[in-house]
Write a structure and sequence with these properties.
Structural class of chain B: mainly alpha
Largest sheet of chain C: 6 strands, mixed
Distance between the termini of chain C: 32 Å
Chains: A mainly alpha (about 230), B mainly alpha (about 220), C alpha/beta (about 240)
Order of helices and strands of chain C: EEEHEEHEHHHEHEHEEH
Distance between the termini of chain B: 29 Å
Low-confidence stretches of chain B: none
Oligomer: heterotrimer
Radius of gyration of chain B: 18 Å
Low-confidence stretches of chain C: none
Structural class of chain C: alpha/beta
Largest interface: A-B, 31 and 33 residues
Number of strands of chain B: 0
Chain lengths: ~230, ~220, ~240
């Protein structure tokens, strides 16, 4: 694959940015004002990782949808590789969303799970893309696999906004336990937040590129295997 | 109109074949009945107010029976290569999609229509009403719309019984939520117009996903 | 009548057809022979519009397969390994269903006549599920010519039949199906191909390796060409 040097540059860059993000989130950003306990003041900082992870998950699945449409139209392997890679990276980040959300919920409201619309939608989205990976594994013919996955990628992403709306309406009739909107962010917090958002996005790009490269290498191995009749 | 006639031919063929064996229909119906009975025992022991869990039980039962029917419908087409017979004929492939949605919808509605009186009797709830019928129709349509697309994919895999629910349920979550909400509301005495937003959500889901499925079905059955 | 140019079909990394060219003139009967996995069925599926080629174009009756698929389907009939029939419906019901799909009006008479001709008149109300494979394939022929297509595609229709049933099927094809039509048939059996067709072609290495009229070709000569073509394809 071309541009490998740039990949390593990007990798180092995202490592530095993530270190910076950790610094911004844990040290630089001012503590939250409207929280009651010491614990909560610390755990509120999870927002700098939780929300960017959610954003990256959403971005990843959007990229998958675009790549899926691209594959169905152009039928080139590259589109399918990007779709698959983006799902894998997206699932990883969405897992992070669910885990960080649980941790926050436990410390703030003493419950591991909350039916907050955003968290619930993330959970359902997580399942959708796990199902995507299951579907890919279950189809034998590689061309069929790519086609089916593309269709599911499109349908899956389309369902996310509607699911979010449905869950939000559903929730308003349930007793409201809390509100994870994290309240307003003061300007200093905002800069830390935006930095983390940027760092996470760069990290997504790096991971995506690595995964895509890996898949192309795997393709080469498969082709070589076939030539040598192994 | 020719396409309408072709669509009718496919739906009629599905109905005739099913009337002969009644396999799909009977397994779906027995399943719904069993599900209702099992849930009745599972919840009744802890909950006094049946009215609260009834909508959920109803829709879970319908969903799982629906998955059975959806799978079976395409398995029958795979047998002896019949799906290819359909694809070989001079019709728009998307017509095959709509015909299959219609057949699946009809089968599910028949099963649901038979299940509702039983449900009414077992739980002593007023379920036989027109506005509930509308909710059931819209909910089932959304389910069948996406389900038909996915079952066409899944029939090509080995793990089809497991894979279809795994693919389908997260996507049709809005349908389940809206249908349960509407059913519950109707049982609580609210009118359909008061819950207009849920009805509109259901309608929007049906319209959007029928459209998306219609557009992508061709990519699923081509090779 | 059938024209294929530069057909490439790849399944992932596995390339089955590598730039295949084929022409079948109107009224001609072309037999296509080749080893297992050569791509005979793949080619048939592409010509029947059931499969899309990775590259290349094909036309049937002057109509492009990719853009005028529906019109093409009206003009072709396919008999393949699978009968494409509904087991839970009777022979009659199956044909009536297909008649409606093809937009044939008042087809009952034609259906009855066809059922008699393929020797299934007595079993017309029996469910296809109860038919032997030979009977199913005979019904499949009826299905394929129901709408009187000018082009007939036969993909090893004698697969899974005992010699007697295969002979019967071949006789049926000879007298009923192939007259006056353009026919492309794939088969394993060189002799049968030589006997039934006016031209014969060998598919090996993803391309047409050899092609000739059957009139002057002896079975031994064909056999030689066949073996050579396969050797060459294997070496590449």
């Amino acid at each position: 694959m071309k541009g490998e040097r740039w990949l390593w540059v990007l990798t180092v860059l995202s490592l530095l940015l993530m270190l910076g993000a950790v610094f911004m989130a844990l040290v630089q950003a001012p503590p939250a004002a409207n929280v009651r306990t010491e614990t909560e003041r610390y755990t509120q900082r999870i927002i700098y990782f939780h929300v960017p992870s959610a954003w990256v998950g959403f971005l990843a699945f959007f990229v998958t949808m675009v790549a899926s449409v691209g594959y169905l139209v152009r039928r080139e392997r590259a589109w399918d590789v990007v779709a698959l890679s983006s799902v894998e990276v997206g699932v990883a980040f969405t897992t992070a969303v669910l885990v960080t959300g649980s941790i926050w919920a436990k410390t703030a409201w003493n419950t591991w799970w909350t039916w907050d619309p955003r968290l619930t939608t993330s959970a359902i989205t997580w399942v959708i893309y796990l199902a995507y990976l299951m579907l890919r594994g279950a189809v034998e013919d590689p061309e069929q696999e790519a086609r089916f996955a593309s269709v599911y990628g499109i349908v899956g992403f389309t369902s996310v906004p509607i699911t979010f709306m449905a869950i939000r309406w559903w929730r308003t009739i349930h007793p409201v336990l809390f509100d994870t909107s994290g309240a307003g962010l003061s300007p200093n917090m905002l800069s830390a937040f935006l930095f983390c958002l940027g760092a996470f996005t760069v990290l997504y790009g790096t991971l995506l590129w690595h995964r895509v490269r890996l898949e192309f290498l795997a393709d080469e191995v498969r082709a070589l295997r076939r030539q040598l009749n192994l | 109109m020719r396409p309408l006639r072709q669509l009718g031919a496919i739906v009629w063929k599905d109905i005739s074949a099913e009337l002969r064996t009644k396999e799909m229909f009977s397994s779906m119906f027995v399943f719904v009945f069993l599900a209702i009975v099992v849930f009745n025992f599972a919840f009744e022991l802890r909950v006094d107010n049946v009215r609260q869990v009834a909508p959920g039980i109803l829709w879970v039962a319908f969903s799982f029976a629906g998955v059975l029917g959806l799978n079976r419908s395409f398995i029958l087409e795979k047998d002896r290569g019949c799906l290819e017979g359909l694809l070989l004929s001079p019709l728009d492939r998307s017509l095959v999609y709509f015909a299959k949605v219609l057949s699946n919808l009809l089968f599910m509605l028949v099963v649901e229509a038979l299940a509702l009186p039983i449900f009414t009797a077992l739980f002593n709830l007023p379920l036989l009403r027109l506005d509930l019928g509308l909710v059931v129709l819209l909910g089932t349509l959304g389910f069948a719309g996406v389900g038909t697309l996915f079952s066409a994919m899944v029939v090509n895999t080995r793990a089809r019984e497991v894979l279809l629910p795994v693919l389908l349920f997260p996507i049709v979550t809005p349908v389940l939520i809206a249908s349960v909400k509407l059913t519950g509301g109707l049982l609580d005495g609210e009118s359909l117009s008061a819950m207009g937003h849920w009805l509109r959500l259901l309608g929007a889901f049906d319209a959007i996903f029928l459209a998306v499925s219609y557009m992508t079905f061709d990519y699923v059955v081509e090779e | 009548m059938i024209e294929a140019r530069g057909i490439v079909k790849a399944f992932g990394d596995h390339v089955v057809l590598r730039g295949l060219d084929l022409t079948v003139a109107e009224g001609e009967f072309l037999a296509l022979v080749g080893p297992n996995g050569a791509g005979k069925t793949t080619l048939m599926r592409i010509l029947a519009t059931l499969s899309r080629p990775t590259r290349g174009q094909a036309r049937i009756a002057g109509l492009d397969l990719r853009t005028q698929g529906q019109e093409v389907r009206r003009r072709i009939g396919l008999v393949s390994h699978q009968p494409l029939l509904y087991g839970d419906l009777s022979a009659e019901e199956n044909l009536r269903f297909y008649a409606r799909l093809y937009g044939l009006r008042d087809a009952d008479q034609r259906i009855h006549a066809l059922l008699e001709q393929v020797g299934l008149g007595a079993r017309r109300t029996s469910l296809v599920r109860t038919f032997s494979r030979g009977m199913q394939q005979r019904l499949a022929i009826a299905r394929a010519i129901l709408h009187d297509p000018p082009v007939l595609l036969l993909d090893e229709p004698d697969t899974g039949l005992d010699p007697h049933a295969a002979e019967r099927l071949q006789a049926l094809l000879d007298e009923l199906a192939t007259r006056g039509r353009t026919v492309l048939m794939t088969t394993h059996q060189l002799e049968r191909g030589l006997r039934m067709a006016s031209r014969i072609a060998v598919l090996a290495g993803g391309r047409i390796a050899f092609e000739a009229a059957t009139g002057a070709l002896s079975p031994q000569a064909l056999r030689r060409q066949y073996d050579e073509a396969i050797l060459e394809a294997g070496a590449r």
